[in-house]
Amino acid sequence: MLLLAVLAGTAGLGAAGWVVGVACAVTMAVALVHGLARGPGDRLGPASWVTLARATLAVGVAALAADSFAHDTPVALLVTLAAVALALDAVDGWLARWSGTATALGARFDGEVDAFLILALSVYVAPEYGAWVLAIGAARYLFLAGVWLLPWMRAPLPPRRWRRIVAAAQGIVLTIAAAEVLPRALMQALLVAALVALAASVGECVWWLWCRRYAAPDEVPESDVGQRERGPLRTGTAVALTVLALLLVWAALVAPNQPSQLHVGAFARLPLELLVVVGLAVLLPARPRRMLAVVGGAVLAVLMVVKVLDMGFITAFDRPFDPVSDSSYVGIGIETLRDAIGRSSANLAVAAIVVLFVALLALPVLALLRLTRVAAGHRDWALRAAAVLGVVWVALRVFGAPVASTSAAALAVDEVQAVRSGLAAHEILAREIPRDRFRATPGDRLLTGLRGKDVLLLFVESYGRVAVQDSSFSPGVDAVLDKGTAQLRAGGFSSRSAFLSSSTFGGLSWLAHSTLQSGIRIGTQRGYNQLVKSDRLTLSGAFKRAGWRTVSEDPANKRTWPEGSDFYHYDKIYDRRNVGYRGPGFGLPPMPDQYVLEALQRLELAKRPRPPLFAEVDLISSHAPWTRIPRLIPWDDVGDGSIFDRVPVEESTRAALFGDSKRARAAYGHSIEYTMSTIASFVQHYGNDRTVVVLLGDHQPATTVSGQGASHDVPISVIAHDPKVLDQIAGWGWQDGLRPSPQAPVWPMSAFRDRFLSAFGSSLPTG
């Protein structure tokens, strides 16, 4: 009751949480009292008090789970309670053995608390992943129903380490699912694996009980169960392990590598690779057979890892994993995850991912070793089965049925080709970098059409075509863009808009920045690293050569950025460490876009006298997870940003957003509305005849918002007060206003640099 009161005071526990919490607490207390009353000599030892503490935490989890159906539940609090309860599960058993106070009642109490916690977590996770997850929580209670209905299920079961491991795995997997730190497709696969393991464990128990259903209860003393029934138990366990090994290898071979194909039908296929391995295992001697299993299992393990990575990358970046370049994103990904969800949650996610990948690498080898050993031990049966299934596979293939699968072999070939292509891309880019029409153009012939102008290159995070067209939130964004266009016109500004096709999708913004600035498509980290070591002319370099002061403002960065001066040639680099912000963070964005633009005005634009300014500014209030969206305030009130501590924000929990894709899309749309309103207000408030703004998105948002198969198009607009600026790009065919229509031109992002320098240069480039 005290814990429920604390939860009510801190998390705002509602009526549903109170009712379920009190009911569960009373039920558990009554059950414990009943158990103590049945054994007059029983009492709660030290270990049972630890178990009672776990039970209390489980009641808190159940209350929060019930409350989640009516209110947003603080995910971190629920996950913390569950994690502590799971950690204490390793303490009570050890304490009972160490203190010599282990009792049958304590063991039963421990098991029921485990089952109750798993049930509560499954109820919380089920709305996100489907009602089938409830089967994990209901398994123990279905077994108890069988015990109540069928007398033969009441015999005592021998202790099994396997059952304890499976039970612990259920709680861990469900807690990770509740934390929402892994991609949905990957989490679904883990939940399915947990359910399969649980079903095998329960099935083994039922099989063991069935095998001795005719034995009288007193025929076998409980102390002799492990000795007298070891034969049936071993048989049941061996069968269960072999079936699990077969299912694992089968699933690993036929599992798709694209989220859109992840459904039950994808696993109803016949893998030729499995038939070949079984056939070879039967024919080979023992040592070569084991070598085949180890090598084949290792290859299969790598393919499983690739499939998981493909799903993650397709979900995030709308492309499969690149084995050559993408391994370098590990450090960046961990840092971004910590900024987005907090260090502790990120560390939990990383630990879970490491455990998962170790399991993915080890389990296929072990499973294939077992399958080949069993097949060799049942030579005739295995050969007949492989031959019959081989004929079936050929027949299905002849008739064009997709059930006949060679997807694992095809994926292996694709990965080899991807590695070859990735390695060849280095040479291709090395030849492309020196091919630069503007490489030797002198500064007095560069950007002559913009002399005296302050040119602001504003990258808006995740501002893609989906924001302005054919989405549930695009009407709101379009209304803001139309209003911004009208505001700018009232202030004497005009604008032209179109689309660019970005080199990236869903993230990795710096690839888009380097593509636009260098005039070369950069789609991988390896290509980026190669580019920034070259002397390729960038837009910022061209402006610097032509006499502009060049600066960069990246509010998310908090470390030294050598490419900024060595490759982009910025005179000054601003980041979160030196813009003077003293306000709150906004999810992953450390400060609102309004402060970023106000800092640029204060630190650079307001200075007099000064040379013309070129500034690349990264606006990131629209960065996922969109949990805290700022509000626009009067510019004179921005100050050092501390005022944002007192300004209400549009706020949602991660659970509300990632558990509801509709709300996530709406939150994304609101973040774009805020940023576009802020830009229009900034230009209207501070802009003058010298102001030229190039405003564009860096990439589309992730597929959770944009959907599968979306284009890479991002809107781009040029805003200017001086009509001569837009007259120089009249031949581009861009549309009037800030909102491009579906018929607006679409350029490759890599084409922008050359067309921009050509439009505003005094003559044709040389060199």
> Beta fraction of the residues?
5-15%
Helix fraction by DSSP (H/I, runs of at least 4): 55-70%
What structural class is derived from the secondary structure elements?
alpha/beta
- Quaternary structure state of the chains depicted: single chain
* Rg (CA only): 32 Å
Beta-strand segment tally: 13
Largest sheet: 9 strands, mixed
Overall mean pLDDT: 82
Low-pLDDT sequence parts: 216-234, 653-659
- From the spread of the alpha carbons, the general shape counts as globular
Specify the number of helices. 28
**Distance from first to last alpha carbon:** 79 Å
How are the SSEs ordered, and which strands pair?
Blueprint: H1 2-11, H2 15-38, H3 46-67, H4 75-99, H5 104-129, H6 134-149, H7 161-179, H8 184-211, H9 225-228, H10 230-254, H11 264-267, E1 270-271, H12 272-283, H13 286-317, H14 330-341, H15 343-377, H16 379-398, E2 404-405, H17 407-432, E3 454-460, H18 474-490, E4 494-501, H19 509-518, H20 525-532, H21 539-545, E5 549-554, H22 562-566, E6 572-575, H23 593-605, E7 613-619, E8 628-629, E9 650-651, H24 654-658, H25 661-686, E10 691-697, H26 703-706, E11 713-720, H27 723-727, E12 735-736, E13 746-748, H28 752-760
Parallel strand pairs: 1-2, 3-7, 3-10, 4-13, 5-6, 5-7
Antiparallel strand pairs: 4-11, 4-12, 8-9, 10-11
Helix pairs in contact: 2-3, 3-4, 3-5, 4-5, 4-7, 5-6, 5-7, 6-8, 7-8, 8-10, 10-15, 12-13, 12-15, 12-16, 13-15, 14-15, 17-20, 18-25, 23-25
In short, what is this structure?
The protein is α/β, with parallel strands linked by helices and about 775 residues long. The chain is about 60% helix and about 10% strand. Strand 5 (about 550-555), helix 22 and strand 6 form a beta-alpha-beta unit.
